[in-house]
Specification:
By secondary structure, the protein is α+β, with helices and mostly antiparallel strands. It is built from four helices and six strands. The protein binds flavin mononucleotide.
Length: 148
């Protein structure tokens, strides 16, 4: 049974994009679908790698992730974290896109195990803190539920 103290579910994964990148198309799909399903989150894209943070009810997040898993626009999907949480991190955004600025790069550098900035090698134990640090910046292109 779901713990009432942990009403939300989050799933963080990374994958390798098939080129050409279709980030705009993906974001429009997320904007169309996520609000009705109560899903919010963030997406980072760098050098052909996706890093996505999804949050909402367990049922909604897992149903979306099952579709994402079979999406031919990426491969090598690696789940970094999947757990129940107390609150949302991106409550206002149906799916925000991270903007790469000196600040967001520096945050990522601080969490990276080596000098290469490779999203695919994000440490599973620091994936959520990484998004939390990014979320505290204003360096996002938000798509709010109301825009959808
Ligand atoms: C990296 C990545 C992230 C995605 N994120 C979302 C998302 O947040 N919401 C969503 O509905 N679809 C997302 N998709 C697309 C889904 O895999 C799927 O194509 C889409 O939900 C189908 O939407 P439709 O039923 O409106 O055609 C994502 C796909 C990829 C490759």
């Amino acid at each position: 049974m779901q713990d009432p103290a942990l009403p939300f579910h989050r799933l963080i994964y990374t994958s390798q994009a098939k080129l050409p990148l279709e980030t705009g198309v993906l974001l429009r799909q997320a904007q169309k679908n996520n609000p009705a399903r109560g899903i919010t989150g963030g997406l980072a894209v760098l050098d052909g790698v996706y890093l996505q943070y999804l949050e909402g009810s367990e049922e909604a997040v897992e149903a979306l992730f099952a579709r994402i898993l079979t999406d031919g626009r990426h491969s090598g999907v690696k789940v970094l974290e999947r757990r129940a949480v107390t609150r949302r991190m991106f409550s206002d955004w149906s799916m925000a896109l991270l903007e790469w600025t000196p600040g967001t790069r520096q945050i990522f550098q601080g969490f990276s195990p080596d000098s290469a900035l490779n999203l695919y090698e994000t440490d599973p134990t620091t994936a959520a803190p990484l998004f939390r640090a990014w979320a505290a910046t204003r360096d996002w292109h938000p798509l709010s539920p109301s825009e959808g």
